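Appendix C: a fully annotated inverse folding record. The material below is reproduced so that readers can follow the format used throughout the book. The structure is listed first as tokens, followed by the designed sequence.
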């Protein structure tokens, strides 16, 4: 599971070798800027998006062998970039190729409003890895006409015809992921995990027939395949060498084999070997073997995430999106925060869960603060700030999990400039001062508790199936809300001070509660158009947690809705009782997960998490108009340049920074496009 960067930080803190010639080309056509004394975190802003940079602290302290490992892993990650584009929508690669051709070859008037709208549209498509918004899942609307695009295509000898052209302007495939209640979610989702005629019932019936060899260790059926109908018969097209996405997967494997050759230790090398075997065969038992080995490989300074992992983009919750993150351990912060994983059993034993839902032995939970060296696929340009893997419940219970907080990403968010929104939405000076003094620490601790303790806590009842089967489309938002609640419950607890993580646990807890309620009930709404429902899993969970607590605390006025000078604020009057309410909701969410109670999760999410108070939404949007900073942020990646001697051996790996967002996107398309625009098996 991954914790996406949410408005909390943005609002309340203002929170083998490659061919020598190929390498030369990468250096020459990737514009870079010299590191400045004052690092410029901001790249550019367009539409609702702000693009940032991040640094790689401690790079110079790595050995050459470690730098090579990072370099090979980042090249492997980028080699699969186009897989994510095709997974997001079947026409994305064809559309991107045509738009990029126009962008680079058009020599006409670039001062017109139409051209500016075209540039903005292309940048939005780049940022979202396709034509659907990276967060809302709505199809991105162009600010230019179909006639104008036809003219651009003709002038640049670019080709985009038929459905791929029409879909930019019509209402077809309007939602990448459609989670609306009482509709066929699979059939109405444009995501390319399923053939256009595959229904939700088809998916459920197909996987009901799949039986794992060991029921106690259920395989992740559907994780690495596309499900289509051929002559009316359902068939999986497996992602593997020689299969679907095989051209890109072969490139990934090439770089992973190089990485295995410079692995830091045997455990790390063995895990990489299993990942390579999985990519070659597509075998799901090998995937589980790899995850067990990867989870146990905790030594070393370098780690990575690579493959088809998170299922947020699948309305049925089976299929994993391609994602990679390459990580370097932050030794100082990891040592400070390791106290959480060391005390994981205490947190489990003292949680408000029913005894039957607690783990008797929390094993193998490791936590590190890391610095990102490169990201691709579903992690880029929009990145998580924390990750906890693997996702299989049985592996978590038997072997454990790895949790990381992406320290340099969070640092960049926090230093990219204040938006001023905080003063607009806080209730009073006390709330403002608490946030200013303790907000960033509260956010870091919430991320850590969410990932380390939250996702690792609790257990399913014997005989209850995986949550994707029992809770279906609500599985992701329930799991994220459950992990959030674990964090919230323990953020207001003297144990944090006892462990040396805070100096004033009450103040940190108050700042955390203020920020969460303010975001869940108000400020995250700036990401939605008026009249829209909340749909993204993390936004939904923040709303249902906050709205449930607000409603259940009304009798005791725990959270007060205040109207002053025509503006709405939510003020917490009783932090102790809110802590109790979070504990009650945590107990209930774990019960729902443990028992697979579909009706209860449906009532919770639909009743509190989806519908928006339209009056408050309109007010929030109006109050937000004064601020120019975009509500969404993402990143360009540093460029790792391998310097080689006359024999082609790497002698050094240098870190440079991309000058522009479009420069990096065009460079990626030139050097990492390994899939045909019409992907076929």
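Designed amino acids, in order:
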């Amino acid at each position: 599971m991954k914790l996406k960067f949410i408005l909390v930080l943005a609002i309340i803190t203002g929170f083998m070798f490659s061919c020598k010639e190929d390498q030369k080309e990468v250096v020459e056509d990737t514009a870079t800027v010299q590191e400045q004394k004052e690092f410029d975190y901001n790249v550019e802003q367009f539409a609702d998006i702000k693009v940032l940079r991040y640094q790689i602290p401690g790079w110079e302290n790595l050995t050459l062998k470690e730098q090579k490992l990072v370099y090979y892993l980042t090249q492997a990650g980028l080699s699969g970039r186009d897989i994510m584009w095709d997974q997001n929508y079947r026409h994305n690669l064809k559309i991107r190729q045509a738009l990029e051709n126009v962008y680079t070859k058009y020599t006409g008037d670039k001062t017109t409003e139409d051209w500016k709208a075209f540039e903005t549209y292309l940048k939005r498509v780049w940022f979202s890895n396709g034509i659907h918004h990276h967060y809302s899942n709505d199809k991105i609307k162009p600010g230019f006409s179909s006639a104008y695009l036809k003219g651009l295509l003709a002038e640049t000898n670019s080709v985009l015809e038929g459905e791929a052209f029409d879909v930019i302007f019509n209402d077809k495939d309007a939602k990448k992921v459609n989670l609306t209640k009482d509709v066929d979610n699979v059939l109405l989702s444009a995501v390319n995990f399923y053939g256009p005629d595959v229904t939700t019932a088809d998916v459920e019936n197909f996987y009901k027939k799949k039986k794992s060899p060991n029921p106690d260790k259920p395989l992740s059926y559907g994780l690495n395949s596309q499900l289509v109908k051929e002559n009316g018969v359902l068939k999986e097209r497996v992602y593997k060498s020689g299969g679907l996405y095989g051209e890109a997967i072969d490139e990934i494997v090439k770089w992973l084999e190089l990485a295995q050759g410079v692995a830091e230790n045997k455990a790390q090398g063995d895990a990489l070997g299993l990942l390579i075997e999985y990519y070659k065969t597509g075998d799901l038992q090998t995937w589980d073997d790899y995850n067990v080995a990867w989870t146990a490989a905790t030594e070393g300074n370098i780690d990575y995430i690579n493959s088809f992992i998170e299922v947020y983009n699948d309305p049925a919750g089976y299929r994993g999106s391609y994602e990679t993150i390459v990580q370097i351990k932050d030794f100082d912060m990891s040592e400070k925060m390791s106290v959480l994983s060391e005390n994981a059993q205490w947190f489990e034993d003292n949680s408000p869960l029913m005894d039957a839902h607690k783990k008797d032995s929390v094993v193998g939970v490791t936590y590190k603060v890391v610095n990102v060296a490169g990201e691709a696929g579903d992690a880029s340009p929009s990145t998580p700030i924390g990750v906890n893997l693997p996702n299989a419940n049985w592996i978590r219970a038997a072997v454990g999990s790895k949790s990381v907080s992406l320290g340099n990403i969070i640092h960049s968010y926090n230093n990219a400039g204040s938006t001023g929104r905080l003063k607009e939405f806080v209730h009073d000076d006390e709330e403002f001062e608490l946030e200013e003094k303790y907000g960033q620490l509260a956010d870091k601790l919430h991320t850590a508790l969410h990932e380390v303790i939250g996702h690792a806590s609790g257990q399913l009842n014997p005989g209850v199936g995986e949550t994707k089967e029992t809770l279906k489309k609500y599985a992701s938002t329930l799991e994220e809300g459950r992990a959030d609640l674990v964090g919230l419950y323990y953020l207001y607890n003297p144990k944090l001070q006892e462990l040396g993580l805070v100096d004033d646990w009450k103040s940190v807890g108050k700042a955390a509660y203020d920020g969460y309620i303010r975001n869940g009930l108000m400020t995250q709404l700036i990401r939605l158009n008026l009249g829209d429902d909340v749909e993204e899993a993390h936004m939904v969970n923040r709303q249902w947690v906050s709205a449930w607590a607000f409603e259940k605390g009304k009798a005791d006025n725990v959270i007060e809705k205040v109207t002053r000078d025509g503006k709405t604020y939510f003020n917490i009057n009783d932090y102790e009782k809110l802590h109790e309410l979070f504990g009650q909701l945590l107990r209930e969410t774990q019960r729902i997960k443990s028992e697979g109670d579909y009706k209860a999760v449906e009532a919770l999410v639909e009743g509190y998490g989806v519908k928006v108070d339209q009056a408050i939404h309109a007010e929030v949007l109006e109050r937000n108009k004064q601020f120019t900073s975009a509500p969404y942020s993402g990143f360009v990646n540093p460029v790792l340049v391998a310097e080689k001697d006359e024999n082609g051996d790497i002698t050094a790996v240098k870190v440079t920074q991309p000058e522009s967002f479009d420069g990096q996107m065009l460079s990626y398309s030139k050097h990492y496009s390994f899939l045909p625009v019409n992907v076929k098996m």
